[in-house]
Amino acid sequence: MADHLEILSAAREGELAPIEEFFKQENATELFKSIKNEYSLATPLHMAAANAHVDVLKYILHHLDENERANIVNQKNDSGNTALHWAALTGSLESAQLLVGAGADAKIKNQAGFDSIYQAEVAENEALVEYFLKTVDFEDEEEETISAGIPEEETKEKDV
């Protein structure tokens, strides 16, 4: 049976066979939750998403216990990034779609305060930004005034 390093490597390289073998185990979902890079805390989902290995993502997501899937998909690495952050930063629309479909929360912010839509904007991936704007409900977020540090009362129109 594949060890944790082999699963991380397979996800990063897009090698499906070791991952298929791993998921033949009983309690595979429970075991999968513990697979993380010891330094970065990146999961196999981070690795597959960052490298746009859609077939690996599809397989993993399909084989995770449905009740655990969203929690696993939203696991953070040492910088607070989820697999969706990495998919957004590398510009993989299909990876992002799979992750969101599996319960990934595009509103999760990393330690720098950035969510996945911001990462997609940084990557200048218009298709991905458009996808997020169409599918993610940002209205329930706290309203943030982007006023370049100007107090809110100064940003309102003044009576003349």
TrEMBL record:
InterPro entries: Ankyrin_rpt, Ankyrin_rpt-contain_sf. SUPFAM superfamilies: Ankyrin repeat (SSF48403). The keyword Repeat applies. Keywords: ANK repeat, Repeat. ANK repeats lie at residues 79-111. SMART domains: ANK (SM00248). It comes from the Eukaryota. PANTHER family: ANKYRIN REPEAT AND PROTEIN KINASE DOMAIN-CONTAINING PROTEIN, ANKYRIN REPEAT-CONTAINING PROTEIN-RELATED. This is Ankyrin repeat-containing protein YAR1.
